[in-house]
Amino acid sequence: YKRAYAPWHWFKKLKQIADDFGIIFFSTVFDKTSVDLMQDLGVGLYKISSFELVDLPLIEYAAKTKKPLILSTGMADAREIKEAVNTARASGAGDITLLKCVSSYPALPSQMNLRAIPEMKKVFKCPVGLSDHTLGMAVSVAAVSLGARVIEKHFTLSRKIKTADSFFSTEPK
């Protein structure tokens, strides 16, 4: 977390810039204090990472804000996803979107199992998207053709700039 951590004092400025450009600003939350920070900034939705999908108290806390939740599923099995969705619904989440995800960095297209997207939509009765950690755009395009409603993709100006996610991020070209 220390390597990928965004200093909290950045968030107010980032939200202002996003607002100025008409971009919906939100963030992954990892604990109750980060939910509180986002609440104070007036953020309209929250993402829960694959690693925190089993943190039901965090999901409950975020859901009690009545704001939409995006739940990434890369580290979870079907039972854990069901528990997370049920917890969010029971706690008042305004809307829930699941992200099909392979928590591998970078992920190989052959690992993605995109056919799970329509199945997840049917089983969990909510919109499904893709957290795409593959290189390139082909997997994201294919996911949309299978019904993905949200695409999460990491971007960098250049992979030469070393960050926690630059080695699997998409460059502008």
Sum this structure up briefly.
With 173 residues, this protein is α/β, with parallel strands linked by helices.
Which regions have little confidence, pLDDT < 50, spanning 5+ residues?
A: none
Question: What share of the residues lie within helices?
Answer: 25-40%
As a whole number of angstroms, the C-alpha radius of gyration is 16 Å
Report the major sheet.
Answer: 6 strands, parallel
Describe the structure.
This protein has 173 residues and is of the alpha/beta class. A 6-stranded parallel beta sheet has the order 1-2-3-4-5-6. It is built from 6 helices and 6 strands; from the N terminus they run αβαβαβαβαβαβ. Helix 5 links the parallel strand 4 (96-101) and strand 5. It has helices spanning 9-20, 32-41, 56-63, 78-90, 116-124, 138-145, and strands at 27-28, 46-48, 69-72, 96-101, 128-132, 151-153. The radius of gyration is 16 Å and the shape is globular. Helices cover 35% and strands 13% of the residues. Helix 3 packs parallel to helix 4. The protein starts with 8 loop residues before the first helix and ends in a 20-residue tail after the last strand.
Topology, please?
Layout: H1 9-20, E1 27-28, H2 32-41, E2 46-48, H3 56-63, E3 69-72, H4 78-90, E4 96-101, H5 116-124, E5 128-132, H6 138-145, E6 151-153
Parallel strand pairs: 1-2, 2-3, 3-4, 4-5, 5-6
Helix pairs in contact: 3-4
